[in-house]
Prior knowledge:
Layout: H1 22-42, H2 54-57, H3 62-94, H4 103-113, H5 119-129, H6 134-143, H7 157-181, H8 185-193, H9 198-226, H10 230-236, H11 243-251, H12 259-291
Helix pairs in contact: 1-12, 3-7, 3-9, 4-7, 5-10, 7-9, 8-9, 9-12, 11-12
Amino acid sequence: MPADRPHTGPRFRLPVEWLGILPFLIFAVLFLILPTMKIVIGAFQTADGSFTLQNLIDLNNASIRSAYWTSIKLSFVTALLGCAIGFAMAAAVVFGGLPKGARNPLITFSGVASNFAGVPLAFAFIATLGPVGLVTVWLRTEFGINLRAMGFNLLSFWGLVITYLFFQIPLMILIIIPALDGLKREWREAAAVLGATGAQYWRMVALPILFPSLLGTFALLFANAFGAVATAFALTGPQLNIVPIKLFAQIRGDVLGNPNLGYALAFGMIVITALANFLYIWLRVRSERWLK
């Protein structure tokens, strides 16, 4: 009889399939989880590492309150305009009389434009609508329209709003088109049989169903604009008092910076964007129940 082999017990083996997402896990830990933990911990520490609440208390000064208010207002305006314009464009593609060939190019462009931000986007707008930009000079020389004299300044709050809309509108289009596709034709036909007009169908059937998706997308666009820093800094520099620019000034390492106050600023941004993203996910789940 063969000798009894010692029972070693079950061994834990990592499935080979998990190796495919291992680079993503490493990337997420190094560049998302660990930096976030560093920010959260640093917001409650002094320069020597001891615990304090002073950093959060210091957020209550006039300059930082103004920065948060400007950032919230900027995010709200761009999210609202992005939702309105993006919804109109998506509805025109899905329900309007546009050629079927217009849908794929719009979606492709939206996928590219929604991720086009930072220094390249700021440079593109400065070269187009800046003080000596292509469109600015063309309007002044050909039509005598002086945008600067009319009060338009790209390096301002409303200039930043126009720049942010370049990626806010495409993001809205990408998210809302699947929701519009989920509206069943039977619902419209049933409303028409009951005597409802097109406006009544949208007001009483379609928009109530789409409302969670619309509100959730608004929350996502709000978070997307609130956390944008590279575009704002490259376009306006320190002229505009918003949270990302003030955060950059605190953590860039000069002698006037306060890294721990910067961590507190970043912690506040994390809380606001986390709430907006949580609202988006919750509303998205609710909307998918209707659109299945």
